[in-house]
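Why should sequence recovery work at all? Because a backbone constrains its sequence more than one might expect. Tight turns favour small or flexible residues, buried strands favour hydrophobic ones, and helices have their own preferences. The token representation captures these environments compactly. In the example below, the structure is given first.
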């Protein structure tokens, strides 16, 4: 991250939560611009060019999923959703709409800060990211040569395994839903074939994780999708 202050848009209608989050974020050296409604938040996003958006789903003037869809129609700003909604279908809807992450209330400030740092690391252009050497722990991927090394030894991946890994590497730290991954790797005609994804994710873990049964990089978000942790 650069030394300049990071601008965060906080869209939350509960005053106490806004005050708590603003205090926590400002203590980390960030500038926070608060919005009580989705409409105010969208205006703030357009005028302040923030580094990241934190948004609640239960807003008084617009559902948070609709807010995310509107924002995604013209911006790729990272969006972290904070919500009291706990149903997996709610999380999937927000992520499919374009949210980058989802934290359920109540949450820990340390975890929120870790998620923020992970998404801010993705701000560099994805193309530039993939032209250089990409590292996941002791795994080194050279996208220009299409080579993968783990602990100094070459790892062979099938074409589909490679596409799945490449997709995850384009979005480190982000939760990718089952449908997002199926569409990206297999195409829009395979959105119901979730068993493909489970099989090939297991293959990646077998080839790239130290303990495939207890992965530290290729993480399952139960009922939602997968996340790559660097």
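From this structural description, the recovered sequence reads:
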């Amino acid at each position: 991250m650069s030394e300049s202050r990071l601008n965060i848009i906080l869209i939350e209608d509960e005053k106490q939560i806004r005050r708590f989050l603003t205090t926590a974020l400002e203590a980390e050296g960030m500038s926070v611009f608060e919005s009580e409604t989705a409409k105010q938040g969208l205006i703030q996003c357009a005028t302040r060019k923030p580094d990241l958006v934190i948004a609640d789903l239960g807003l008084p003037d617009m559902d948070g999923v609709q807010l995310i869809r509107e924002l995604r129609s013209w911006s790729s700003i990272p969006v972290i959703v904070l919500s009291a909604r706990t149903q997996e279908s709610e999380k999937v809807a927000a992520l499919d709409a374009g949210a980058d992450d989802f934290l359920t209330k109540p949450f820990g400030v340390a975890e929120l800060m870790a998620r923020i740092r992970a998404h801010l690391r993705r701000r560099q252009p994805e193309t530039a990211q993939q032209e250089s050497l990409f590292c996941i722990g002791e795994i080194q991927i050279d996208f220009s040569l299409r080579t993968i090394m783990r602990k100094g030894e070459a790892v062979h991946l099938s074409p589909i395994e490679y596409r799945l890994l490449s997709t995850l590497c384009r979005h480190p730290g982000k939760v990718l839903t089952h449908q997002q991954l199926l569409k990206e790797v297999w195409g829009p005609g395979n959105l119901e074939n979730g068993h493909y994804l489970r099989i090939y994710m297991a293959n990646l873990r077998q080839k790239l994780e130290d303990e495939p049964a207890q992965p530290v990089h290729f993480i399952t978000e139960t009922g939602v999708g997968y996340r790559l942790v660097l």
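A few observations help interpret the result. The first strand starts at residue 7 and ends at 11.
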